[in-house]
Write a structure and sequence with these properties.
2 domains; 235 residues; 434 Repressor (Amino-terminal Domain); 8-stranded parallel sheet; 20 strands
């Protein structure tokens, strides 16, 4: 059960109209309607008020009762993961280091979502936006830029890549800065790596301990350069 289903179910159990619920919370009827249809979510400051009004726990609000009443979350100093869109909470769960955190990213490709991750992330599917991570990033294509305090393993990147670790990916439309070795396709700007740089064309300057590439349009700064051999009809 999702939060919108819980709100609607609890409202109907109390025999309340959307107008009555809106009046109780001091909001518009349209806001209540959007909550119940999933078009928008309650502001984070509204969540305790909703729980108090319906006399339910936060866990019940998000997940429903599943046939029985859920106890209040204990004050046990456990880590819990909360996902928000802006200031609106859309999910929360107890943290488990052995379990991957499912990111609730809408599948609609016409919307852009920037991800800020305080840690490492394994993301299934493409990302239509930018990624900022405090650890390692593993994902498919990224339409924007990628910044990571660890390594980056992904498909193509539509912007630049800055990583404190190594980088393994498809083509990079922007520049590249890596704290480790790099294996990727073409790079649309300058490329800098603390280790070896193995890639296709580099549209800017190249700096690395060892460079193995197809072509560098700018200057080269390294100990060893290997130019790959390609068929003449390749770009």
């Amino acid at each position: 059960m999702k939060i919108q289903e819980t709100i609607k179910e609890r409202r109907t159990e109390k025999n309340l109209s959307q107008e009555a619920l809106a009046e109780a919370f001091g909001i518009s009827v349209q806001a209540v309607s959007k909550w119940e249809t999933g078009l928008s979510y309650p502001d984070i400051t509204m969540l305790p008020k909703i729980c108090d009004f319906f006399n339910i726990t936060m866990n019940t609000l998000f997940y429903g009762e599943k046939g029985q009443a859920l106890n209040e979350l204990p004050d046990d100093n456990k880590y819990r993961v909360v996902q928000c869109i802006g200031g609106k909470v859309i999910s929360h769960e107890e943290y488990d280091s052995k379990k991957k955190i499912k990111l609730l990213i809408p599948s609609s490709s016409d919307k852009k979502f920037d991800l800020e991750i305080w840690g490492s992330a394994d993301i299934e599917g493409d990302i239509n936006g930018n990624v900022n991570a405090g650890g390692v990033v593993n994902c498919s294509d990224v339409s924007g830029y990628v910044q990571a305090k660890g390594g980056v393993n992904c498909g193509g990147v539509g912007g630049y890549v800055e990583a404190q670790g190594g980088v393994n990916c498809g083509g990079i439309d922007g520049y590249l800065k890596a704290g480790g070795g790099v294996n990727c396709g073409g790079i649309g700007g300058d490329a800098s790596a603390q280790g070896s740089l193995n890639c296709g064309n580099i549209e800017g300057n190249a700096t690395a301990q060892k460079i193995k590439c197809k072509k560098v349009k700018g200057s080269i700064n390294c100990d060893k350069v290997i130019i790959k051999k390609y068929d003449d009809d390749e770009d």
